[in-house]
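Example record used in the benchmark description.
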Amino acid sequence: TVLQVPRSGLNEAYLEVLRSLYSPKATHYRRLHHVSDASLAMAVGCIEMIEPAAAGVGYSVDPRSGNRERILIHAVRGLGVSLVEGRTSPEIIEVERGGEQKVIARTPANQEAFIRGQDGGGVREETVPAEARQTWLLSDQEASRLARLVLKLETHFGAPQDVEWALDQARQFWILQSRPVRVLIQERVEEPPLPGRQVLLSG
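Model output (structure tokens):
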């Protein structure tokens, strides 16, 4: 992903994405799984950047425990790249799945720095003022509204979803990406070992 690309930089950003197809990691993966270079195709999507007040990920089920009674929301100030790259711990909001999607629990982030776009292109890191670190990024009403969007996506795709989102300065949500939740711990633990194989390490 290349963020905050000005119009003049679109061609170079496009080529950067194409070049990633031949990075050492991608090349190793193809060789490991016997994927032919001739079968490759690369789609490059371009979407308009917004300056988010907050961004993050919403899970339609809790991927940590497999709990299907709650929706889990992770939120950070500014662009979501600081969360995706593990630079900061998020504000965590737990919302009930049923009823009115009420907020059940919150864990503050105490985020010290955030990432924002620059007018001329690219991104920069800024410090969060001390007094702002104690404020919630999403209100209860916003968390409930986001939870309902996440549930709609789960219904549409027919499986638990991992949803990347952004909240703009006008407090409107933008859905950036939705994909299946990769691993549900509860389901993984319940899987029996392969026939004739012994479990050497679990957990």
